Automatic annotation (TrEMBL):
<keyword id="KW-0446">Lipid-binding</keyword>
<dbReference type="GO" id="GO:0005829">
    <property type="term" value="C:cytosol"/>
</dbReference>
<dbReference type="InterPro" id="IPR002913">
    <property type="entry name" value="START_lipid-bd_dom"/>
</dbReference>
<dbReference type="InterPro" id="IPR051213">
    <property type="entry name" value="START_lipid_transfer"/>
</dbReference>
<dbReference type="InterPro" id="IPR023393">
    <property type="entry name" value="START-like_dom_sf"/>
</dbReference>
<dbReference type="Pfam" id="PF01852">
    <property type="entry name" value="START"/>
</dbReference>
<keyword id="KW-0813">Transport</keyword>
<comment type="subunit">
    <text>Interacts with ACOT13/THEM2.</text>
</comment>
<keyword id="KW-0445">Lipid transport</keyword>
<keyword id="KW-0007">Acetylation</keyword>
<protein>
    <recommendedName>
        <fullName>Phosphatidylcholine transfer protein</fullName>
    </recommendedName>
</protein>
<dbReference type="GO" id="GO:0008289">
    <property type="term" value="F:lipid binding"/>
</dbReference>
<keyword id="KW-0597">Phosphoprotein</keyword>
<keyword id="KW-0963">Cytoplasm</keyword>
<feature type="domain" description="START">
    <location>
        <begin position="1"/>
        <end position="189"/>
    </location>
</feature>
<dbReference type="GO" id="GO:0006869">
    <property type="term" value="P:lipid transport"/>
</dbReference>
């Protein structure tokens, strides 16, 4: 629910609505995304989202992406390509997937949050994103597609111009979801 806070509608495109909320302390935005991916079932979408090896094939911004066991936990390392002249960013985070049954509604939930482990040290020339949180919920749209809800916040660090952050939120998220929908179609062919 968006009530009670100053969430602004940032963009509506292709059945996807993106809202943002300014965090007064950091000057950064939190994002909520609502949308429907019509040709991708919830289970397939959740499987594609969790498949890191497959993501390297379809996400053009992935430089490096893998899971590693650290201190008894499975940690994800993800390096994201940023446009020149900016430095790439990397993330170290924990993630969990749960498939829930809420009064007959099957909902796939993926939670991710940044963490720090001594095994994955910061690299020269790459800025470590230390604040990252994402929640994703996927359920049937009642047909053959998926309703998607995503909450997202990260602090990319460094001096990124606000125009680029706005461009990424307005264009990057819808483009990512379109790429993911395409990846769902291709996933069926590859499995």
């Amino acid at each position: 629910a968006l009530a009670g806070a100053d969430w602004q509608l940032l963009v509506e495109t292709s059945g996807i609505s993106i809202y943002r909320l300014l965090d007064q302390k950091t000057g950064l935005y939190e994002y909520k995304v609502f949308g429907v991916l019509e040709d991708c079932s919830p289970t397939l979408l959740a499987d594609v989202y969790m498949d890191l090896d497959y993501r390297k094939q379809w996400d053009q911004y992935v430089k490096e992406l893998y899971e590693q066991e650290c201190n008894g936990q499975t940690v994800v390392y993800w390096e994201v390509k940023y446009p020149f002249p900016m430095s790439n960013r990397d993330y170290v985070y924990l993630r969990q997937r749960r498939d829930l049954d809420m009064e007959g509604r099957k909902i796939h939930v993926v939670l991710a949050q940044s963490t720090s482990v001594p095994q994955l040290v910061e690299r020269s020339g790459v800025i470590r994103v230390k604040q990252y949180k994402q929640s994703l919920a996927i359920e049937s749209d009642g047909k053959k597609g998926s309703k998607v809800f995503m909450y997202y916040f990260d602090n990319p660090g460094g001096q990124i111009p606000s125009w680029l952050i706005n461009w990424a939120a307005k264009n990057g998220v819808p483009n990512f979801l379109k790429d993911m929908a395409r990846a769902c179609q291709n996933y069926l062919k590859n499995t």
